[in-house]
Amino acid sequence: MFQKNKMTVIQSDITKLEVDAVVNAANKELLGGGGVDAAIHRAAGPELLEECRKLNGCEVGKAKMTSAYNLPAKYVIHTVGPIWRGGRYGEPELLKSCYESSLELAQNYDCKKIAFPCISTGVYGYPSESAAQIAVNTCNEFLKEDSTILEITFCCFLGKDYSIYRSILRDH
Ligand code: AR6
C-alpha cells in the first residue's frame, strides 16, 4: 500500500520547520557550503559547525546526525548526495541510499517527524523529476516496514519542485 497519509509536500525554508529532524544536503567534508547547507548552518549557529568538525566527514550516500542548536528542529541529519554525471555512475542508487541512511538514523533516534530538502538537485545538478521519484519511492518503501516515523515532509524551496512532488503524490 502507498503510504500517502505519512508523506506531505510543502514549499518552505527547511530551517523554519518544527520537526524532530531536518535533513541537510551536505558535502563530504560536512563543514558547510552553499544552498540549503548554508541556510541550515546560518540558522543553527556556529556550534553546529563545531560538532560537524568532529564527525570526520561523510561518504556519498551515507548520513550522520548532529544536534540542531538554534533551529526549531531537534536534530540535523547530514547526508551527502551524488553529483550528477549523466546517470551512469551509480547516481540513482546513491541518492536512494541518502534517503535510506537518513531514515535509518531518524528511526534510531526515535524521530516521529522528519523533513527532507530535494537532495542533490541544486549545486549537484541531479534532474529534479527523477530525484523526486526516487525520494518518494524510497520513503514509501521505508514507511511500509517502519512504525516509528509518522510524517515525512518533502520541503521544497522552489515552486518547480513543489509542483513535481505534488503531482507524484497525487498520482498514487
Ligand atoms: N530550505 C529548503 N530547501 C532549500 C533551501 C532552504 N533554505 N535552500 C536551498 N534549498 P543544494 P545539493 C534547496 O544546492 O544539490 C552545497 O553547497 C534547493 O532549491 O543546497 O545536494 C553543499 O555544501 C535545492 O532544491 O544541495 C554541497 O557542497 C535543494 O535545496 C552541495 O551544495 C538542494 O540544493 C550539495 O548540493
Description:
- The chain is built from five helices and six strands, in the order ββααββαβαβα.
- It has a six-stranded mixed sheet, sandwiched between helices.
- It has a single domain, classed as Leucine Aminopeptidase, subunit E, domain 1 (3-Layer(aba) Sandwich).
- Helix 3 (91-108) packs parallel to helix 4 (128-145) and helix 4 packs across helix 5 (159-170).
- The longest helix is centred in the middle third of the chain and has 18 residues, at 91-108.
- Helix content is 38%, strand content 19%.
- With 172 residues, the chain is of the alpha/beta class.
- The radius of gyration is 15 Å and the shape is globular.
- Ligand AR6 binds at residues 13-15, 25-27, 33-37, 39, 81, 117-124, 155, 157-158, 161.
Number of domains: 1
Report the C-alpha radius of gyration, rounded: 15 Å
Stretches with pLDDT under 50, minimum 5 residues = none
The CATH class name reads Alpha Beta
Mean pLDDT: 97
Furnish the topology, listing elements before pairings.
Blueprint: E1 7-11, E2 21-26, H1 35-44, H2 46-53, E3 63-67, E4 75-80, H3 91-108, E5 113-116, H4 128-145, E6 151-156, H5 159-170
Parallel strand pairs: 1-6, 2-4, 2-5, 5-6
Antiparallel strand pairs: 3-4
Helix pairs in contact: 3-4, 4-5
Ligand AR6 binds at residues 13-15, 25-27, 33-37, 39, 81, 117-124, 155, 157-158, 161.
